[in-house]
Amino acid sequence: MESHIYTLVRRADWAAAERAGEYAGSADDRRDGFLHFSTAAQLRATAAKHRAGEADLVMVEAAVAALGDALRFEPPGSGRAGLFPHLYAALPLTAVSRVVPLPLGADGLHVFPEGFP
Question: Domain limits at 8?
Answer without folding.
Answer: 4-102
